[in-house]
């Protein structure tokens, strides 16, 4: 438990200290930031644990039962090749529990009072993070269309995430504790950009739907999954007399499943790039402020 060095400014601060001091926070703003960002990651993981039931929830055999499943048409892409299927399963089965466990690494009380648990959990998180990133690399070619922008940002995000973890691991081995925490914060802020990208993607998809028309190229075999038979498909997409051909699908969240898939695919890449930039810049403000306060304390 952290003991405050200054008397509380008012009754509210005194009451809040009774909440955040026992779990190891000495500053109220650190506790608030932890609630916001770690809480968002924790909640996101809890909401995604159902995806570990891959065939029942994430890619259900009956698509009509998939209200909480993968994006429209994504399961066809994942199941189109064993590498992609292994990749998405590896990604989901490791990064979701890994991110969930990572939330506990940022609880000061656990870090200070249960060092062994913090250390063992940390190594487990690192292992799951590496495996989850490998899975993400394996599916980058087909995720939400798999455009060059998506493949590039997936590679960049994965490299930034893993390099930050490696640097943090080096720091802890050399007993540079503050640098270790700073790089772990960077790593998980980068990873957290996936959450922000989802919000940006859905907002962007709605804007694209209203300001269009925008179109996305889509493989005819994938388009067939949105229709009952090839006759219905060819009526809407004459180019799909050959299922190996490609056709354009209009991007619109207010249309059918194929239109929603098109809207999400043309906005996903931009959403991740923007989210990653926001998180990469934002975490530096926090880390620099944290380092400044730490240096000020050391001088005194």
From TrEMBL:
Domain of life of the source: Eukaryota
Record field: transmembrane: 31-51, 90-110, 122-144, 150-175, 187-208, 260-287
Any Pfam family hit: DUF2306
Keyword set, alphabetical order: Membrane, Transmembrane, Transmembrane helix
Matching InterPro entries: DUF2306_membrane
Protein name in the entry: Microtubule associated protein
